[in-house]
Amino acid sequence: MTVPRPEENGSATFSSLRVPTFRLFWWSGVYSYLGVQMQFLLRGLLAWDLTERESGLGVVYLAFGMGLLIFTPVGGVLADRWPKRSLLVFGQGIIALAAAGMGLAAVSGNARFWMLMVASLIQGAMFGLIGPARVSTSAELVGRAQLGNAISLTSMSMSLTRLFAPAAAGVLAGVATIGIGGAYLVAAVFSVVSTLLTARLPRLEPSNPSQQRPLDEIRDGLRYVRGKPELRRLILTTTIAIMVGFNYVAFLPALVEGQMGLSESHVGFLTTASAAGAVLITAFVASRADGPNAQMLLVYCGIAFGIGVIAFGLAPNYLAALLIIVVLGFATNGFMVLTSSRSMVISDDSYHGRVQSLMQLAWAGFGIAAAPLGAAAEIIGLRLTIVIMGVATVVVVGLYGISLVNTAVQTTE
Global pTM? Predict the structure, then answer.
């Protein structure tokens, strides 16, 4: 496959989209993220409607996180030894079926909290299964020279859908004739379209597939990461920051509906405001993710991410929260894009799937941490819990930044 160079494309920001197969992959991601973003909001809305408790929200995301935790290592191994197209089609198809099942249950008035937990568990498992393959597919389609750009544009597709998908989900959920169940069915349709587009990709055979047993491959991946200090620190920092800091999104329904007394639509618009900031930073990062200053930009975005969570927890009203979350989305997405691209750059091709499976465990941690954080919110208060989450994020990213500076000093001595 001949991959055009950025300077041949006329635009460094969108250079990867000149590769036809990556463009198809990008569009499949757009439809996938439309369904994902709608379900992310709908899951919280339905959990709140069924329980009206912060701990109820937390338990649903815990189920999602457990699915991720169990299947992400498996997904990393499979991404390094199976054709990625088959893996992506299977996982995306199961996600569509789970969304359709939950939608039918809600439409018929038979939705129960345990059903929501099962659907969350299944979807978390499928995200774990296909997540490493999605990231490593970007590298395979465009090559290392445009790796950061491709990951940035993939993230941009997710951010663009967040501009309107959550708000649309909130609006649809608030319409009596559609409701949460109807919105779930719309999300399922988007997932089906994504599955059909993904099926048109090349087979994406693995490079140098291992013949070891899966458990041995997982151990081999862990040994590989332990032997690379920068990669080890990056994975640890990303896991803690996402696990703790990003959990502010799990409690949006509790903050907006429970404490501010507003509607589902307001929750959706708040998520849209976050996406607006994410789109801005992704366009900026896309042309810089492969540059020499990407590491420090990563640290700046991470610290701003933590500060934004603190400010969000202290927001006195909805308008203030709306303004803060734009900046928060800006910083959060920049941090996630740069950590993902950096982890790919500093790891070997044959380990991409397993490295990305470890990076994706941050999202498993996000779901698992939601339950104890939800319980803490009921004990010490929701706003104080969010502030503590932000402080923890600032500390862990700051320590990572210090380690980078110390490494640079030692290298020059």
Answer: 0.68
Which CATH number do you get for residue 74?
Answer: 1.20.1250.20
d(CA 61, CA 247): 10
Answer yes or no: is 220 within a domain: no
In the 3-class helix/strand/coil scheme, how is 110-161 assigned residue by residue? CCCHHHHHHHHHHHHHHHHHHHHHHHHHHHHHHCHHHHHHHHHHHHHHHHHH
Q: How many domains does the chain have?
A: 1
Tell me the pLDDT band of 388, cut-offs 50, 70 and 90.
very high
Domain assignment of residue 92, yes or no: yes
Structure tokens belonging to residue 34? 């439309």
Distance CA 411, CA 413 (A): 6
260-291 CB burial, b ≥16 within 10 A, e <16: bebebbbbbbbbbbbbbbbbbbbebbbbbbbe
Q: Percent helix, strand and coil across the chain, each rounded to 5?
A: 85, 0, 15
Locus of tokens 């299944």: 122
Q: What is the pLDDT of residues 56-102, one digit of tens each?
A: 777 887 788 788 888 888 887 787 778 889 999 999 999 999 999 99
Residue 218: inside a domain:
no
Structural domain including 376 reads 11-202+225-412
Cα 272 from Cα 278, distance rounded (Å) = 10
Closest CA to 352 of 362, 361, 343, 363: 343
Q: Is residue 323 part of a domain?
A: yes
178's CB contacts (< 8 A; 6+ apart) are 172
